[in-house]
Design goal:
- The chain contains 2 helices and 7 strands, in the order ββαβββββα.
- The protein is α+β, with helices and mostly antiparallel strands.
- Strands 1, 2, 3, 4, 5, 6 and 7 form a 7-stranded antiparallel sheet that branches.
- The termini are far apart.
Length: 117
């Protein structure tokens, strides 16, 4: 079962205009109630945020150090939040997970991006 805060390899498909494309790491941001029940529903969408190794910083990026199976220093691109079908997530390719400080920063920046603060 996937969990909020885990980073997996995800197939974003073919790049379209400014959208992220290709297979790349992504952070699961969907709540764990939905994650636990995903096999019980018809729509198997999972909310994720892609990572990039193009480091630019800014108010809507969270830096993640290389660790576990995450092969390079990366940034979580908060403003690229999207929902994809579960089949696009390589469940056997969990790369790492966020620590409490990183999760707190993602949550704060996600609230900022969504206009909730």
């Amino acid at each position: 079962m996937i969990k909020r805060g885990e980073i997996y390899l995800v197939n974003f498909g073919k790049k379209y205009n400014s959208e992220f494309g290709k297979v790349r790491p992504a952070l699961v941001v969907q709540n764990d109630v939905a994650n636990r029940n995903i096999d019980k529903v018809d729509f198997k969408g999972v909310s994720v945020i892609p990572l990039t190794t193009f480091i630019s910083g800014g108010n809507l990026r969270v830096s993640i150090e290389k660790r576990d199976q995450l092969e390079a220093i990366s940034e979580i691109c908060i403003n690229e939040l999207c929902t994809l079908d579960l089949s696009r997530i390589y469940l056997d390719k969990k790369l790492t997970f966020l620590n409490k400080e990183e999760q707190k920063e993602v949550d704060m920046k996600l609230q900022l991006h969504l206009g909730l603060m």
